[in-house]
């Protein structure tokens, strides 16, 4: 319902075939995102740092494909988008790398390859394993979290700023991004990322929340 209503509201589209939805998280509540993309008929690319979560969703049949190669992900995205094939592709890697690659594609080819975007990392708990910084691998991140939580926190906040910078560039070109109620925008704001609504007060964000704007 969230993906379909986002398409209706932001793309004015009842049919999402050929549209691309990019997000992250295939764990607990976020695991349904892959299935949702296919039910909605769009191309879903979902990033996840934890291979165990990817393999679980793939085994369940909720996730159609897995890849740790961004070149392959972009090629599959283009192919499915062109042929209007419903696809759920799990990218085994950090979502910031995925967003930055989409910015690179925009900068080098002029193509905006994503129509809808969101995030379901556990940003309500970003400094204790809910969000992993792009600067480190998953295993390196776990080790740093254990050995130096202060440094881990700093890297998470740097990563959130990069995350938002990439999303903003794509949104400025027409992608529609929303907050999934996971405190992503709140923690990004605390990290110093550019998420404030221009002309709004300090509690207003430039991107909507799915609760009020999409589900409501």
From TrEMBL:
Bilayer-spanning residue ranges: none
All copies of domain Urocanase Rossmann-like, residue ranges: 2-214
GO biological process: L-histidine catabolic process
SUPFAM superfamilies named among the record's database cross-references: Urocanase (SSF111326)
GO molecular function, one term: urocanate hydratase activity
InterPro entries in UniProt: Urocanase-like, Urocanase_central_sf, Urocanase_Rossmann-like, Urocanase_sf
UniProt protein name: HUTU hydratase
Gene designation per UniProt: Uroc1
């Amino acid at each position: 319902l969230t993906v379909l209503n986002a398409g209706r509201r932001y793309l004015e589209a009842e049919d999402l075939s050929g549209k691309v939805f990019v997000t992250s998280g295939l764990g607990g509540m976020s695991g349904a995102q892959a299935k949702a993309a296919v039910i909605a008929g769009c191309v879903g690319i979902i990033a996840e740092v934890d291979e165990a979560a990817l393999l679980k969703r793939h085994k369940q049949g909720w996730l159609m494909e897995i890849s740790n190669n961004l070149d392959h992900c972009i090629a599959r995205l283009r192919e499915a988008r062109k042929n209007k094939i419903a696809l759920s592709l799990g990218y085994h890697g950090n979502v910031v790398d995925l967003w930055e690659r989409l910015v690179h594609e925009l900068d080098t080819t002029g193509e905006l390859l994503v129509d809808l975007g969101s995030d379901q990392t556990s940003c309500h708990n970003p400094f204790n394993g809910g969000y992993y910084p792009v600067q480190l691998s998953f295993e390196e991140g776990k080790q740093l979290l254990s050995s130096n939580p202060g440094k881990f926190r700093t890297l998470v906040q740097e990563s959130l700023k990069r995350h938002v910078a990439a999303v903003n560039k794509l949104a400025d070109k027409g992608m529609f991004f929303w907050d999934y109620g996971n405190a992503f925008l709140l923690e990004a704001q605390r990290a110093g990322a550019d998420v404030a609504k221009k002309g709004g007060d300090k509690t207003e964000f430039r991107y909507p929340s799915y609760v009020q704007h999409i589900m409501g």
